[in-house]
Amino acid sequence: TNLVFAAELAALGLASALPPRIGTTSLAQAHGDSANRGSGTASLKQVRRPRYRFNGARSVYRTYLKYGAPVPDDLVKAVAHTDALYAAEVKRATGSAAAEPIDESDQAYITPVTIGTPPQTLELDVDTGSSDLWVFSSHTPPSQIHGQQIYSPNKSSTAKLLEGHTWSITYGDGSASRGNVYIDNFTVGGLTAEKQAVQCAQQVSASFTRETHVDGLIGLGFSTLNTVSPKSQLTFFDNVKSGLDSPVFTADLKHGAAGTYDFGFVDKAKYSGEITYVPVNPDPGYWAFNSSGYAIGSGKFSASAITGIADTGTSLLYLPTAIVTAYYRQVEGATNSRTYGGYVFPCSSSLPSFTFGVADARITIPSAYINYAPITPGSSTCFGGLQSSSGVGINIFGDVALKAAFVVFNGGSPPTIGWAQK
Ligand SMILES: Cc1noc(C)c1CN(C)Cc1cc2n(n1)CCN(c1cc(N)ncn1)C2
Predict the structure, then answer these.
(1) What span, in angstroms and rounded, lies between the C-alpha atoms of 126 and 112?
(2) Which of 176, 184, 331, 399 is the most buried (most CB within 10 A)?
(3) Interval 70-118: pLDDT, tens
(4) Mean pLDDT throughout 298-316?
């Protein structure tokens, strides 16, 4: 009976009150721990099983089975009932995927995904500034494909054409793509959306053709921005959100190194200090939030609200002209070049860091991130990672800003965005 009792307690996930006796060797002793009490005695430490929920009906049921007793019908029903209750509470799905820079200036980041059956692997640009999931495909004219991996729906047994639906999107820099739509399994970071709308490109603009490392985009903006017509489709995040442990995804982008996108959980190991959450206005369809102000280098903080969007699909940081001119006034030889389309400076110039506020929190972008890249490979003139938003029409916290922080995109009600130093 001691053994049974101990077993029941173990089933409860509780430490047993009955220390095991002769013949058992503690793990510590197995690993030669210092206090050797001689032979014949040992003690095993038990630990609580994480997230274990005791299910009484099931425990009684097991005892009936163990002693071959006939199981009463209402006990079988009770077990099914309690299992169902717990299934509703069980830890849900999460995912974690790499975000690899496509070049040495972190112009964009790519994330491996699989689509269809058998799985076809592509590497897509996760883009919180748009809401279309589109891919280079077997429907893309070969003349427009330059090294990209493609998705072939006709090779996937689970692909279904979304009859009569098309899509067409144009991005801030004028690049564009359009095509038809399939529904298929879509997996990123071990997380699968069974019926994901996968938009197949039948036409891509030259700048996408030139981007050999980018096989398409995963739009993680709000689904209201999705361009599929006549019926707009849900983003991957909206498709998986209800099954996630928590309705969030996080971005931990890095300068010149692979970072991660996590889904369903906030990884405490990825940031320092506290995460500061601020409201998001989902109406424009972007992750729009208010920054509380800025500071240049070690200068004083200027508390002035800056409404902008957190956009993983934009490379640079675009802010109001007044802030940008104040910044480059501190950079030797900086000019706003019409030729190169923005602020440039001698690559050897020393740059101040740039700090932006999120409520009372402060995110500081190291100066190295603002020395973005030579205007052409090998040039001694460099392009700034901070540029004016006046031509864009909206302030954009793109990768230059995002990679200085750990960012939580909280898709709960109401949506919020969290920022932490790292
Ligand atoms: C890659 C990459 N990423 O940014 C650029 C530009 C490139 C390079 N370029 C040659 C190709 C290209 C152009 C775009 N992309 N890729 C990604 C989506 N684009 C966005 C997304 C968004 N949220 N906001 C604005 N544009 C425009």
Answers:
(1) 10
(2) 399
(3) 999 999 999 988 888 776 665 589 999 999 999 999 999 999 999 999 9
(4) 98
Measured from CB, residues less than 6 Å from any atom of ligand 1 are 107-108, 125, 127, 129-130, 171-173, 175, 207-208, 210-211, 214, 217, 311, 313-315
Report the separation in Å between the CA atom of 128 and the middle of ligand 1, taken as the mean of its atom positions. 12
Predicted structure pTM score: 0.82
DSSP 64: H
**Token code pair at residue 323:** 């802030």
How many CB atoms sit inside 10 A of residue 378's CB? 5
Token pair, residue 242, equals 């209800």
- Of 22-36, 152-166, 352-366, 369-383, the range with the lowest mean pLDDT is 22-36
Distance, CA of 33 to CA of 117 (rounded, Å)? 51
Is residue 374 a contact partner of residue 382, using CB atoms and an 8 Å limit?
yes
Residue 74 annotated to the active site: no
Q: Evaluate if residue 30 carries a pLDDT over 60.
A: no
- Output the CA angle 10-14-15, nearest 5 degrees: 90
Q: Is the pLDDT of residue 391 over 80?
A: yes
Q: Indicate which residue of 106, 125, 127, 132 is catalytic.
A: 127
